[in-house]
Design brief:
The chain is of the alpha+beta class. The protein is 29% helix and 34% strand. Bound molecules: coenzyme A.
Length: 152
């Protein structure tokens, strides 16, 4: 990701997440201002990962594969893990939501372990960001945050 990508990223994040802001573990972040990786195929954006470094931990803030089941998510996770090792981090961490069973499967298949459950965290974030839907994937009521970690 380079500085010239940032205006496009702000638009892309809003398309993918319904807002330029994401609410996670009680904080509100603007992913287009964070470091990250863009996956491109034939000069077309097909994936995006943003992260922040906190102490000895790399936190993935957003991950999207625009073309699914083509290996893009895996490549972006590998890029994040490699970046974490480069910065001598011991852990890659991310937050997902209780409805995102596809992501829970995807991350656990790639070595992530369940680390923390925050019941009602999404309900609390919804008070700050009313665009957060009440119903998530597969019609599951959207309430809770789940953290996963990967040791690197
Ligand atoms: C979760 C997410 C990032 C996964 O990305 P993805 O690019 O679809 O993931 P991959 O293609 O790398 O892997 C998914 C599956 O497709 C398989 N796959 C990869 N390339 C394939 C191919 N060419 N043919 C068939 N299957 C393939 C992988 O093996 C994997 O299956 P496995 O887990 O059983 O090994 C994506 O579904 C997504 O963007 N979801 C919406 C946003 C979201 O929820 N993000 C996470 C928020 S925490």
């Amino acid at each position: 990701m380079s500085e010239s990508d940032r205006p496009m990223l702000a638009w892309l994040v809003a398309e993918l997440w319904g807002s330029e802001l994401v609410a996670v573990h009680g904080t509100v972040l603007r992913p287009a201002e964070l470091p990250g990786f863009i996956a491109e195929r034939s000069r077309r954006v097909v994936g995006l990962l943003t992260y922040q470094l906190t102490g000895d931990m790399l936190e993935i803030v957003t991950l999207n594969a625009i073309e699914r089941r083509a290996g893009i998510g895996t490549l972006l996770i590998e890029a994040a893990a490699s970046t974490a090792r480069h910065f001598r981090c011991h852990e890659v961490r991310l937050t997902t939501t209780n409805d995102n069973v596809d992501a829970l499967r995807f991350y656990q298949r790639r070595g992530f372990r369940l680390a923390e459950l925050r019941p009602g965290a999404v309900d609390r974030s919804r008070q700050e960001k009313p665009q957060i839907p009440r119903t998530g994937d597969y019609g599951i009521p959207l309430h809770d945050e789940i953290d996963l970690t990967l040791q690197v």
